[in-house]
Amino acid sequence: MTTTSADLAAEVLEQLADALRGELIVPGDAGYDEARAVYNGMIDKRPAAIARCRDVADVITCVRFGRDHGIELAVRSGGHSAAGLGVADDALVIDLSLMRSTTVSPENHTVRADAGCTWGDVDHATVAFGMATPSGFLASTGVAGLALGGGIGYLSRRFGLTVDNLLSADVVLADGTLVTASASSHSDLFWALRGGGGNFGVVTSFTFRCHDIGDHGTIIGGPVFYDLADVGEVMRWYRELVPSLPEELSGWIALLTIPPVPPFPEELWGRKACGIVWCYTGPHDKADEALEPVRSYGSPLLVGLQPMPFNVLQSAFDGLYPAGLQWYWRTDFFNEISDTAIEVHHKYGEQLPTGHSTMHMYPIDGAASRVPADATAFAYRNGGWAGVIVGVDPDPANADRISQWAKDYWEELHPTSAGGGYINFLMDEGQDRVQAAYRGNYGRLAQVKGRYDPDNTFHINQNIRPANGVGG
Ligand SMILES: Cc1cc2nc3c(=O)[nH]c(=O)nc-3n(C[C@H](O)[C@H](O)[C@H](O)COP(=O)(O)OP(=O)(O)OC[C@H]3O[C@@H](n4cnc5c(N)ncnc54)[C@H](O)[C@@H]3O)c2cc1C
Q1: pLDDT tens-digit profile of 321-379?
Q2: What is the mean pLDDT of residues 181-196?
Q3: How far from chain centre, in Å, is Cα 385?
Q4: Rounded to whole angstroms, how far apart are CA atoms 385 and 288?
Q5: Distance 337 CA to ligand 1 centre (A)
Q6: How big is the chain by its Cα radius of gyration, in Å?
Q7: Which of helix, strand or coil describes residue 95?
Q8: Which pTM was predicted?
């Protein structure tokens, strides 16, 4: 049985507050509304308390408190979950966002990051040494949620997913014990953490393998935009081109509205477009050769390719998508971009409902597809693309419109997909969609869940039901 906030006596919460190094924020406190807010402005949950943990001991205290008092636990790091799973009504939110230190070892090519880091924190730390570990396409996203779900980004073709570069993780388990999971310690847990999301415990720090990139961390990248009328031709060219490119070059394709802000040329502001954002991380003396097919193709509206530190490209779109906008997502993996799919993209690209709304397809071939599908929990390793349709707008009055556009688009596109979607782009879509995301790996994940969290203590997530446990 779970406890509601009304039942949680102030006295009990005071005991928890006294036991923490970090702050405990409860309803009525001045900072409560700010502390309960997550990145997606559509999410409006009222937790019983938010514990802003300072260290691992605080996390352990919270996990034990939740269990002792029958209070649900939500775990939040960067707060970027589309479905808003870092917060829940009447729950105790274990907020790791104050735990943000990083330690780089240039000799070992590793970085250790506390779970509250954003990818901006990690890139800042590693690019100073000319290195990076594979992450995503934005700096403000949390390391923890992204890394635990898979991690698809600019470096996936060359160095694999984020989970393929995870060396170890410190995890507070449901019984409050702390373990280190790696290939040689709790290897079953380590397998499950690499894609299984927040199901197995609270990760307090990660150690990742790093790679030298570009010219001491300076890559060549940026967007190339084409008229939306050319989307069919561009997508057919792109789907053939990407698999033929050296793995040092990757590019994700998008349908978008050109933002009405510098550095975009004013004459293009507000124009619907098909864009590809490229990132070349190889040696600069080979860059012209690698980028030649990109530079010589079609009649682009804008070519924004230029040398820049990797972390500058990573944070290039952060300003366009500040926290607090309304977001509604839909996702699928695609083995191919079929002609039928391209027609659907064209149709819904013409109907982009708001300036922020967009569709992205991220390549997950190359190194990411050489890892066997059962080597980690992340199951979609056939090559191809991870797709996401995102309705976005600052105005809550448009929430239904952006959601409906995303749902309709997804319904028409889904038959061309590989079946399941990326766990980190799922909304609250039910067990079938969670199982489809893991395909053949779901059964093994349920076994590991049964071993490490048989009571399903960690269930405010894309939930894996424990085999032989609660809900199993
Ligand atoms: C604008 C935007 C851009 C994105 N771009 C990319 C991208 O390029 N590539 C990509 O792969 N994904 C991307 N994502 C998806 C992203 O990976 C997920 O939203 C991810 O959950 C974000 O992690 P977080 O820590 O910020 O989220 P949170 O909301 O803090 O957490 C999400 C969930 O992860 C789990 N979790 C969080 N922290 C911990 C922890 N310390 N221990 C255990 N479980 C934990 C919990 O279940 C939690 O509910 C993007 C999301 C957004 C909103």
Answers
A1: 999 999 999 999 999 999 999 999 999 999 999 999 999 999 999 999 999 999 999 99
A2: 98
A3: 15
A4: 25
A5: 26
A6: 22
A7: strand
A8: 0.97
Question: What is the CA angle 144-1-202, rounded to 5?
Answer: 15
Ligand 1 centre distance from Cα of residue 114 (Å): 14
pLDDT in tens, 121-158: 999 999 999 999 999 999 999 999 999 999 999 999 99
Q: What are phi and psi of 102, to 5 degrees?
A: -130, 150
Residue-wise DSSP of 316-328: TTGGGS-TT-EEE
Q: Which atom of ligand 1 is nearest to the CA of 142?
A: 26
pLDDT of residue 469: 64
Ligand 1 within 6 A of 146 CB?
yes
Distance 203 CA to ligand 1 centre (A): 13
For atom 19 of ligand 1, the residue with the nearest CA is: 81
What is the whole-number distance in angstroms between the Cα of residue 291 and the centre of ligand 1? 31
Cα separation of 222 and 303, whole Å?
8
Centre of ligand 1 from the C-alpha of residue 145, in Å = 3
Enter the DSSP assignment of 215.
B
Hey, which of 76, 117, 326 would you mutate to test ligand 1's pocket, going by the most ligand atoms within 8 Å of its Cβ? 76
DSSP secondary structure of 114-151: ETT-BHHHHHHHHHTTTEE----S-SSSBHHHHHHH--
Q: Is the pLDDT of residue 470 over 70?
A: no
Q: How far is the CA of 115 from the centre of ligand 1 (A)?
A: 11
Contacts of 434 (CB under 8 A, 6+ apart): 423, 426, 442, 462, 463, 464
- Using the structure block, give the residue that is written with the tokens 């939930």: 463
Average pLDDT in the chain: 96
Ligand 1 near 142 CB (within 6 A)? yes
Q: Provide the percentage of residues in the chain whose pLDDT is more than 90.
A: 95
Q: Would the pLDDT of 390 be above 80?
A: yes
Lookup: tokens for 211:
């790679």
Ligand 1 lined by 203 (C-beta under 6 Å): yes
- Mean pLDDT across 206-229: 98
Count the Cβ atoms, other than its own, within 10 Å of residue 16: 23
Mean pLDDT score, 204-211: 98
Q: Is the pLDDT of residue 6 over 60?
A: no
